[in-house]
Amino acid sequence: MKRHALTKAITLATLLSAASFGAVAADIPLSEVVVADQVSTTVVSVDTANHSVVLKGPQGNEFPVQLTDKAKNLGNLKAGDTVDITVTSAVAAYLDTDVDKGLPGTAEATGEIRAAPGSANPGGEAYRQVKVQLKITHIDLAKNQVTFENPEGKSKTVDVKRPEVQAKLKDLKVGQSVNVVYTDILTVTSKH
Q1: How far is it, in rounded angstroms, from Cα 69 to Cα 144?
Q2: Which DSSP letter does residue 115 get?
Q3: 44: pLDDT confidence band, cut at 50, 70 and 90?
Q4: What is the mean pLDDT of residues 5-26?
Q5: In b/e form, how buried is each residue of 100-137, taking b as 16+ CB within 10 angstroms?
Q6: 2-28: b or e for each residue (b if 16 or more CB lie within 10 Å)?
Q7: For residue 99, what pLDDT is reported?
Q8: With contact defined as beta carbons under 8 Å apart, do 28 and 10 qualify?
Q9: Which has the higher per-residue pLDDT, 157 or 188?
Q10: What is the pTM of this model?
């Protein structure tokens, strides 16, 4: 399983995905953050007929995981096996300089990659990516604040704390769109 290559590819796609919002617009990156957390768990039991697994967390707590029928290699997983779970979250914000974009909106994509059928080590990755287009309704350079309108028409004022993003505030204009892309990647790798 080439999990690192997929994680890097999806993260890179997230960071570059603003180009898909409009071929004419010049997208300007405002900020991006990538955070990863990993935990090793132990398999307590496997129910291949019902596509479920019970895992034991690092603090000893047991929790069931219900899988879909797409989990093909559960027969290779057994009690006592170690399973590594990694969650990678990325948030990227881009200024869309096309001020005639219209109303804010939301788009979502999901996907998964599984270990090849017959693979000795079950595992796989799933991702969820949400793209939200926000409209700038107010900019306060003195306070380093920007007010956005979300797809539901609600406004929220955000304090911009990162100096590199504060420096870009002077280039923003009311009516412009900011595209925020949230990506979560769940990677499961089993070890025998």
Answers
A1: 50
A2: P
A3: very high
A4: 40
A5: ebeebbeeeeeeebbbeeeeeebbbbebebebbbbbbe
A6: ebeebbeebbebbbebbeebbeebebb
A7: 52
A8: no
A9: 157
A10: 0.60
Residue carrying the six token digits 């993003």:
165
Task: Name the residue among 47, 41, 69, 37 with its Cα closest to residue 191.
Answer: 41
Q: How is the chain split into domains, by residue range? A: 3-191
Instruction: Give the three-class secondary structure for 165.
Output: helix
Q: Which residue has the tokens 């590594």?
A: 84
CA 38-31-172 angle, 5° bins: 160
Higher pLDDT, 54 or 102: 54
List CB contacts of 135: < 8 A, sequence separation 6 or more: 103, 104, 148, 149, 175, 176, 177, 178
What per-residue confidence (pLDDT) applies to 58?
81
